[in-house]
Amino acid sequence: MRKIAHISDLHFGRNDPQATQALLDDIAEQQPHLVAVSGDLTQRAHHHEFAAAREFLAQIAAPVIAVPGNHDVPLYNVARRAFTPLKRFRHYISAEPHPFFGDGEVAVLGINTARSATLSNGRISHEQMAAIGSIFGQVPSARFRILITHHPLMPPPDAPERDIVGRADPALQAIAAAGVELLLAGHYHQAFTGDIASYHLAARRSILVSQAGTAISTRRRDEVNSYNVISIDDRDVSCARRVWDGGRFSEAMTQHYVLVGHKWLPHDRGHGRKTRTQV
Ligand SMILES: [Fe+2]
Ligand SMILES: [Fe+2]
Question: What CATH topology corresponds to 2-274?
Answer without folding.
Answer: Purple Acid Phosphatase; chain A, domain 2 (3.60.21)
